[in-house]
User: What shape does this take?
Amino acid sequence: MTVEEKIGQTLQAARDYLVSDSDIAKYGLGSVLSGGGSGPRFNDPAHWADMIDGYQRVALSSRLGIPILYGVDAVHGNNNVRGAVVFPHNIGLGAANDPALVEEIGRITALEMLATGARWNFAPCVTVPRDERWGRTYEGFGESPDLAGPLGAACIKGLQSGGLGSPTAVLATPKHFAGDGGTSGGRDRGDAAYSEDDFMRIHVAPYADAIAAGARCVMVSFSSWNGEPCHGSERLLTGILREKLGFKGFVISDWGGVSLLPGSYEERIAKAVNAGIDMIMVPDEYARAAGAMRDLVTSGAIRRERLDEAVRRILTVKFEMGLFERPFADRSLLAQVGSLERRSVARKAVAESVVVLKNEGSVLPISGKKKILVVGPRAKDVGAQCGGWTLTWQGVRGSSVPGTTIMQGIVEAAGPGVRVEYSRDGTAPAGFEPDLAIVVIGEDPYAEMKGDSSDLALPAGEKRLVAAAASLGAPVVAVLLSGRPLIVTDELGKVDAFAAAWLPGSEGAGIADVLFGVAKARGALPCSWPASIEQVPVNAGDGRPCLFPAGFGLRP
Assistant: This one.
């Protein structure tokens, strides 16, 4: 390989920043990715396969014919693709705490990715969120490494089902190494101020489980540890990840993460590569990055041995994956994307994730009711159920993906002898006097950065919905759709039953299964739930008061 060809393997470009598809071969790029919301004009599995296979043909036309690894953030199912099953976000799976189920979800996600040609998943997120103000809290399994480690390992085993070289496997990527969930104030891309012992015990520990489960790629965190950016930390990426944990795969930066380091453009690249990053998610200026890398290798700022080491790691994983033998989408899998069988697994996951926080008067499970009023627009909103990282980066409200709404699930579970009406604002239809109200409240979808919150307050409009439902004079069941605990102390006092349903994904009927006793409530809080913002951050073992401790969950 020429130096230029080696450098190309260490670069990953985003598809929407490609000046020309031919640049994949021109620069010998090692990888291309779709960021959130970046896909084919017609978003369905077949068009994804056409798009990715097209890029792959360009890569194979290069002098060496090395296939690209195509990467996506399939963080709760193949969530970029319309028609794919969307599973609960990780915080819900942490509430379910069912490793076998998480492994099955990983296996299904891999099959739905392989149908489209995407062979590399930037998941699972094995972060340990310690402050719910962080907008990525829902991407973690919970506040304890005892959840993140085993569940992250289960996800990796599912994604890499049958072994990395199996035709049913995709490459998993535990992220973000390390401490992204431990930043002060829950600030995204902030600083995690920890002693080495605490940092290793809380934030690094899940990576030991991930490596033992077969992880061959790790993504670096945007955050810093005690003031040192992770993207430039040789102590973290080489000393801890490789020497202490024994990681043998390759390390990738996060989106533009190298550009956030101090210094000139060239100095940032040299710092990151010498610290231990093998592939740079550029994602835009790949031509500039290639030129800078060439100059750095020529000058000795990046030793040629270090470049060879990075390329060897990347190519080793490509060979282990069977990428050279099977570079294209497996179109035999297209017909099963989003199948009813797979949606039933998602529905089971939703039911297992629901946590019942209050149940006065044994309102749950619902029985013997003849007139039910379902309150709030989120009851008919699959997009609200799915949250961020669904079709787009930040997520979108409305009928964004195929699935079942909570309202549909309630009608099904209630049965033909029960009259179920819907009210957007809590006003009952004329002449309709409900004997039960179910109010669905929550947050709007969000993802990193934009999801950070200083107060964790339930939106004012959602508070009004609870008050309207409570004024009807019937028992009230509240269902909260959120990516984290919110401050709902006042609302808890106004309702008879309260269920945290997290961000359940496309199969909202799983919530109704729990409300009506079709499925037994078994979810337990994966994180401590604060009574007020003054109690944040609060985590098990810190001796601070909270409204509900981690592990709490009623079993009506």
Notes: The chain has a mean pLDDT of 98. The two ends are 64 Å apart (CA to CA). The longest strand covers residues 436-442. The chain is about 35% helix and 10% strand.
